[in-house]
Amino acid sequence: MRRMNPTETKETTHTTDVTDAPDAAATEPVELAEPATAEHEAEAETEAEGTDEVPRASSGLAAAAGGVVSAGLGVVALSGSWVGKIAAERQALIGQIKTSQGGTPAQQISAIYGDAWHSTAMFNGIFALLALIVGLAVFALPQKAGWVRAFAVAGVALGVLGLIVSGGMYFDIFLSLPSTGS
Q1: Residues with Cβ within 8 Å of residue 85, at least 6 apart in sequence
Q2: How far apart are CA 41 and CA 77, in angstroms?
Q3: Other CB atoms within 10 A of residue 51 CB
Q4: Which among 24, 65, 83, 114 has most CB atoms closer than 10 A?
Q5: Digit-coded pLDDT (tens) for 53-105
Q6: CA 38, 44, 15, 29: dihedral to nearest 10 degrees?
Q7: What is the DSSP letter of 110?
Q8: Listed residue (74, 66, 60, 180) closest to 126, CA to CA
């Protein structure tokens, strides 16, 4: 047989005998390795790491959704929501029922309008607080795009502004209830 040069390779899986070798150690069969494939390399990497799972890269979807939701909640906190409107109308109806059998004008104003006003302020404050919490949570999540951070900042800013406005409404800082001429 022909003797192989050390730089030559033969891509087979069977053993090859070297017959022109001067000593006995060189006459033993030599096993050549299989060519490396991507599958073998991936198996070797996972065996080296000790785990079969490959860590998944974050797509940033949760952060993006959170940023948009935060900004949306902030807008709702400032403009009002359907839930707040229904709660205010309910409080106005309860106030009308309570004062229908009598009551001073100040009691009627407070029961019919004041409680409804405070109910609206409370629900707007809840939406503002949610906007603030979601916006701050987005900063804790890994994100990829810069616009996600911008939406989160907008949500936090609108949440803070919504809390200020709803607090001012609830405590009658901006507008107080009308008083009677008594």
Answers
A1: 120
A2: 55
A3: 9
A4: 114
A5: 655 666 788 899 999 999 999 999 999 999 999 999 999 999 999 888 888 88
A6: 150
A7: I
A8: 74
Alpha carbon distance 182, 174 (integer Å)? 23
DSSP label at residue 144: -
For residue 13 the two structure tokens come to 């899986």
Distance (Å, rounded) from C-alpha 133 to C-alpha 125? 12
Q: What distance in Å separates the CA atoms of residue 94 and residue 40, rounded to the nearest whole number?
A: 74
Largest CA distance in the chain: 126
Phi-psi region of 141 (alpha: psi -120 to 50; beta: other; left: phi over 0): beta
What tokens does 27 get?
A: 């006459």
- Does pTM top 0.70 for this prediction? no
In this structure, what is the dihedral angle of CA atoms 7, 10, 14, 19, given to the nearest 10 degrees? -50
140 alpha-carbon distance from chain centroid: 9
DSSP per residue, 9-42 = ----SSEE---S-SSSGGGS-EEPPPPP-HHHHH
